[in-house]
Write a structure and sequence with these properties.
Distance between the termini: 57 Å
CATH architecture of the largest domain: 3-Layer(aba) Sandwich
CATH topology of the largest domain: D-Maltodextrin-Binding Protein, domain 2
Number of helices: 10
Strand order of the largest sheet: 5-1-6-15-7
Mean pLDDT: 87
Strand content: 15-25%
Structural class: alpha/beta
Largest sheet: 5 strands, mixed
Keywords: Signal, Transport
Family: Belongs to the bacterial solute-binding protein 3 family.
Order of helices and strands: HEEEEHEHEHEEEEHEHEHEEEHHH
CATH class of the largest domain: Alpha Beta
Low-confidence stretches: 1-40
CATH superfamily of the largest domain: Periplasmic binding protein-like II
Pfam family, one: SBP_bac_3
Protein name: Glutamate ABC transporter substrate-binding protein
Helix content: 25-40%
Shape: elongated
Organism: Nocardioides endophyticus
Length: about 325
């Protein structure tokens, strides 16, 4: 019998006015998450794409002492930080149906940056809900100051934009029904596994479980509907995305263990605004020191992923 379970609807929506946020338009259509651009040439120097710019000497400046002429001072003078985010990635960035506020781990990152510029994030953040395909173009055009949208750092993207140090280390995993007996990817042999069409996630699965049966949907929410309708036995994707799906379905769980891929998330910035990158890296260092990163992880991800995590160690030297 097909068991249909309730799904907490999380739609891509505008950030509502109030609660310290400015209303922003929402794309009418959500573009499916594309695969990360292929790297056609090796990284320079250390070969580590997560390598970013070191925080400025002297530590993180106070809002009243931002360097004159800096990107941060210009944002402060404007009155708000404009951040490109997801609106339908539960636990990362999605609208709380009760408060009307877009919240999640990525939003915590945005708020920390805004608070470092203004002294408080309240009233100084404009969240712009964007598609995955819009992330780089909007940074290049200057329509957003930063992008915090589960964006994987890689060499190809460094040719187009700049990144903060890695703020979260994600990786591809699988989500299955509790009690399924599937404890590793090899257990998907003969089973159906779903991933959004156009991604490379199923390729990774079939390398390790050649007899797995691929199932596709428009996005991960579509995969969850298939999962709940008995049309697939598993869903695969970044563990952050799967954690959001598991939090919406009490019969689902993310298989623990080593991830199939490495997906280092970074905050995207216009490549010419190195001062803002250094500033954000200073914010991330402060989050490590005061425990706010750990608190954010414990709130959003640990209940579903069921594993401890620590903030990634930054790599500098650009």
């Amino acid at each position: 019998m097909i068991r249909i379970r309730a799904l907490v609807a999380v739609a891509a929506v505008a950030v509502v006015a109030g609660c310290g946020y400015s209303a922003t338009p929402v794309p009418q259509a959500v573009t499916p998450e594309p695969a990360a651009p292929a790297t056609t040439a090796p990284c320079t120097d250390t070969g580590n794409p997560t390598r970013s710019y070191a925080p400025a000497a002297g530590g993180l400046p106070s809002p009243g002492n931002l360097p004159s002429g800096s990107t941060m001072a210009a944002i402060r003078d404007r009155g708000h930080l404009i951040a490109g985010v997801s609106g339908d990635s539960y636990l990362l960035a999605s609208r709380n149906p009760f408060s009307g506020v877009v919240e999640g781990f990525d939003i915590d990152m945005v708020n920390q940056v805004a608070a470092a510029i203004f002294g408080t994030a309240k009233g100084h953040v404009q969240l712009r809900v964007i598609s995955a395909a819009d992330r780089i173009p909007l940074l290049q055009s200057g329509d957003v100051d930063i992008v915090a949208r589960n964006m994987t750092i890689n060499c190809a993207r460094w040719d187009q934009i700049a990144f903060s140090a890695e703020y979260f280390h994600s990786g591809q995993k699988i989500l299955v029904q509790k009690g399924s007996g599937i404890t590793q990817v090899a257990g998907l042999s003969g089973k159906r596994a779903c991933a959004p069409a156009g991604t490379t996630s199923l390729d990774q699965i079939q390398e390790l479980a050649p007899d797995a049966i691929p199932v596709t949907a428009t996005n991960h929410t579509g995969c969850l509907l298939k999962f709940q309708n008995g049309e697939t036995d598993a869903i695969t994707g970044d563990d952050t995305v799967l954690a959001g799906l598991a939090a919406q379905d009490p019969y689902a769980e993310v298989v623990t263990g080593e991830a199939l891929t490495d997906e280092p998330y970074g905050i995207g910035v216009n490549r010419d605004q190195v001062d803002l990158v250094r500033f954000i890296n200073g914010v991330l260092e402060r989050m490590r020191a005061d425990g706010s990163w750990q608190a954010s992880y414990a709130r959003w991800f640990k209940p579903s992923l069921k594993v401890d995590a620590t903030q990634p160690t930054p790599v500098y030297g650009r």
